[in-house]
Design a protein that fits this description.
The complex is a heterodimer of chains A (117) and B (113). With 117 residues, chain A is an all-beta fold. Chain A has strands spanning 4-7, 10-13, 19-25, 31-38, 42-49, 56-57, 64-68, 74-78, 87-94, 107-108, 112-116. In chain A, the strands form 2 sheets. In chain A, strands 2, 4, 5, 6, 9, 10 and 11 form a 7-stranded mixed beta sheet that branches. In chain A, strands 1-3-8-7 form a 4-stranded antiparallel beta sheet, with no helix packed on it. Chain B is mainly beta and 113 residues long. Chain B has no helices and 10 strands. In chain B, strands 1, 3, 4, 8, 9 and 10 form a 6-stranded mixed beta sheet that branches. A 4-stranded antiparallel beta sheet of chain B has the order 2-7-6-5, with no helix packed on it. Classes of the chains: A mainly beta (117), B mainly beta (113). Chain A binds chain B through residues 4, 33, 35, 40-45, 48, 50, 54, 56, 58-59, 90, 92, 97, 99-111, and chain B through 1, 28, 30-32, 34, 36, 41-46, 49, 51, 87, 89-91, 93-106.
């Protein structure tokens, strides 16, 4: 099993360009997440999908859109990239959601390093 | 949003025990506390999780007091390979009945020979 797979691993964009970060998991998990990590900021939640067919905003959703294509795949789109979106992006997934408790374990991909010039 | 607070950095030596404390004053009643480890150029990796009192696994121990407003990750006899960033994670109630999983800034642990 590959776990959580992110593509691409590296990307350089010019300001105003668009792109989609892809994420797929093969663990049959219900919930998926997108985080960004900036130096000294830890990980910040961009969007999440608690289950197939639902998405919701996290801490820093502005400038991003997401699509839960199916149970396996959760993509993150930058419609018009800005230098402030230069960051490392991590996708994660967790087992079947259990309601209001948060005893899931998150499984992370290896990240996408994005630079916007 | 409720936040967690951890020390920014810690230093230790091989063979010592390391304790990292996280404050989470607004933790929800039904929420668990989870710790992750992150090495450079990798995604975070699950270490341990608990709800109350003490949890121990092959990697670490987690101590949670009765009021659950803080938790302490304990790493016994650290080695150089334990040099990493450690994150405390709690959920924050969100709309729709779901909890958003919010990471703190993390603690950068450096283990020296």
């Amino acid at each position: 099993n590959a776990g959580v797979t992110q593509t691409p691993k590296f990307q350089v964009l010019k300001t105003g360009q668009s792109m989609t970060l892809q994420c797929a998991q093969d663990m049959n998990h219900n919930s998926m997440y997108w985080y960004r990590q900036d130096p000294g900021m830890g990980l910040r939640l961009i969007y999440y999908s608690a289950s197939e067919g639902t998405t919701d905003k996290g801490e820093v959703p502005n400038g991003y859109n997401v699509s839960r294509l199916n149970k396996r795949e959760f993509s993150l789109r930058l419609e018009s990239a800005a230098p402030s979106q230069t960051s490392v992006y991590f996708c994660a997934s967790s087992e079947e959601y259990r309601g209001l408790t948060t005893n899931e374990k998150l499984f992370f991909g290896s990240g996408t390093q994005l630079s916007v010039l | 949003l409720a936040k967690t607070t951890q020390p920014i950095s810690m230093d230790s030596y091989e063979g010592q025990e390391v304790n990292i404390t996280c404050s989470h004053n607004n933790i929800a009643t039904n929420d668990y506390i989870t710790w992750y480890q992150q090495f450079p150029s990798q995604g975070p990796r699950f270490i341990i999780q608990g709800y109350k009192t003490k949890v121990t696994n092959e990697v670490a121990s987690l101590f949670i007091p009765a009021d659950r407003k803080s938790s302490t990750l304990s790493l016994p006899r650290v080695s150089l390979s334990d040099t990493a960033v450690y994150y405390c994670l709690v959920g924050v109630p969100a709309s729709g009945g779901y909890n958003k999983l919010i990471f703190g800034a993390g603690t950068r642990l450096a283990v020296h020979p």
